[in-house]
Amino acid sequence: MKYTLKNELPAPEEYCHLRQITGLSPKTIAAAQVSLPRSLHAVTLRNGDQLIAMGRVIGDLGCHVQIVDIAVHPDYQGLKLSRVIMENIMDFVTKECHRCAFVNLFADVDYLYQKFGFVDSVKSKGMYLDWNRVSQS
Ligand SMILES: CC(C)(COP(=O)(O)OP(=O)(O)OC[C@H]1O[C@@H](n2cnc3c(N)ncnc32)[C@H](O)[C@@H]1OP(=O)(O)O)[C@@H](O)C(=O)NCCC(=O)NCCS
């Protein structure tokens, strides 16, 4: 592969930019600065210096683990680069996480994840906090 794959964090600025151009929900630089160092695992793919794809794993390694920030730069989509990212992430998950860990994700596109063993949640429904419903104190 002509691109460089590394297990490293992206800079907060390029992380926020990649999320923005791929249509993922926007994050502030300040939030990224708090978030990124708390990753269990991160993978970046670069063309030269340019960040073209990434993925992260967050959680506690033992009981709860979440896969987040799977994103491929629009100029590089359709090249199956997300598989490279997911293979790296699954290698980490299968080697490092306890077999009883609940490994989950919110899938915008489920075909990316089914081939790695992810299934629809039937028993429990995924939910998230709507900050507009939380009063500020
Ligand atoms: C979703 C995203 C990560 C996909 O990355 P990509 O590298 O462009 O993916 P590709 O289109 O090359 O396809 C990846 C795989 O899905 C398959 N695929 C693509 N479209 C498909 C479809 N409609 N149905 C089934 N499989 C499909 C491809 O064949 C390929 O399979 P393979 O790796 O097993 O050969 C990328 O488009 C992206 O960053 N989108 C915006 C952000 C986003 O939605 N992230 C996911 C959040 S859950």
Automatic annotation (TrEMBL):
Lineage: superkingdom: Bacteria
Instruction: Name residues in a coiled coil.
Output: none
Q: Which Pfam family name is an example for this entry?
A: Acetyltransf_7
Question: What SUPFAM superfamilies does the annotation carry?
Answer: Acyl-CoA N-acyltransferases (Nat)
The N-acetyltransferase domain is annotated at 1-137
A single Gene Ontology MF term assigned here is: acyltransferase activity, transferring groups other than amino-acyl groups
Q: Which InterPro entries match?
A: Acyl_CoA_acyltransferase, GNAT_dom
Q: Which CDD domains match?
A: NAT_SF
- Protein name stated in the entry: N-acetyltransferase domain-containing protein
